[in-house]
Amino acid sequence: MNNQVGVVIVAAGRGSRMGTQESKQFLLLRNKPIFIHTLEIFAAMPEVDEMVMVTGAEDVERCRDWIHQYKISKNVRVVAGGSERQHSVYRGLRHLQTDWVMVHDGVRPLIQPELVRSCLEAAQRTGASVAAVPVKDTIKQVNGDGIITATPDRRSLWSIQTPQTFRLSDLLRAYEEAEHTGFLGTDDSMLVERIGIPVTVVQGSYKNIKITTPEDLDMAALWVKTEGEDIK
Ligand SMILES: Nc1ccn([C@@H]2O[C@H](COP(=O)(O)OP(=O)(O)OP(=O)(O)O)[C@@H](O)[C@H]2O)c(=O)n1
Ligand SMILES: C[C@](O)(CO)[C@H](O)COP(=O)(O)O
């Protein structure tokens, strides 16, 4: 089997929890748009054969301009997304012709190539993988009245990240099935799990944060590696 790898970077959200007028994926992180950091990591990897970026229909042209301006080292196809993350991923998938696909959030710019490689290796060995970290806090289930109803065993709880890696044919089938039944999930793995494909968890990084609220951007600015400056 040919093992060609495609990457879908989703960046079509509004970033409402960030509370800025500009969509959060375009905010500057150490003088560079967040999504450009993310694209640079994948574009530099020899394992990656095709790249698609999904963004808002109104942002397609300026993203192409940025990609040109920052001299992203691989060809990146920029396409318009949908109203939910799931719709955006599905639109991106249709532009790939690879055997494998890695889906990654454009707003996880601290992803490291080593983790991308581990996720790819695990998926190619087992069929499907997601990056994740064990939760550090005790997690409670709370009802609508603010009363605790359960304390699940923390040892089985993981906080799920991206990349999420699958055979393209499996992920397309999972997306078609979800679309058909009106199922809406918050990650790609949920859709694959529900068609009965086991998904392997790969130990991710606590630094592979999804920039969601303003303090995440502050943390990312502390951690991001800038040219000529190695921040631990
Ligand atoms: N319709 C959407 C919604 C989300 N995303 C992308 O999915 C990733 C994870 O989503 P999240 O962090 O929830 O982003 P937003 O939806 O933008 O944030 P919020 O929920 O605060 O509005 C982001 O890279 C986001 O751009 C997308 O491509 N299309
Ligand atoms: C896919 C994901 O990054 C896993 O954590 C996440 O579910 C997407 O973001 P959202 O905040 O749930 O929309």
TrEMBL record:
Catalytic reaction list: 2-C-methyl-D-erythritol 4-phosphate + CTP + H(+) = 4-CDP-2-C-methyl-D-erythritol + diphosphate
Top enzyme category: transferase
Keyword Phosphoprotein found: no
Site entry: Transition state stabilizer: R17, K24
Stretches that traverse the bilayer: none
Alphabetical UniProt keywords: Isoprene biosynthesis, Nucleotidyltransferase, Transferase
UniProt EC number: 2.7.7.60
Keyword Transferase included in the entry's annotation: yes
Site feature (Positions MEP for the nucleophilic attack) residues: R154, K210
Biochemical pathway: Isoprenoid biosynthesis; isopentenyl diphosphate biosynthesis via DXP pathway; isopentenyl diphosphate from 1-deoxy-D-xylulose 5-phosphate: step 2/6
Pfam family, one: IspD
Gene Ontology molecular functions: 2-C-methyl-D-erythritol 4-phosphate cytidylyltransferase activity
Source superkingdom: Bacteria
Function summary: Catalyzes the formation of 4-diphosphocytidyl-2-C-methyl-D-erythritol from CTP and 2-C-methyl-D-erythritol 4-phosphate (MEP).
Family, similarity comment: Belongs to the IspD/TarI cytidylyltransferase family. IspD subfamily.
PANTHER family: 2-C-METHYL-D-ERYTHRITOL 4-PHOSPHATE CYTIDYLYLTRANSFERASE, CHLOROPLASTIC
Name of protein: 2-C-methyl-D-erythritol 4-phosphate cytidylyltransferase
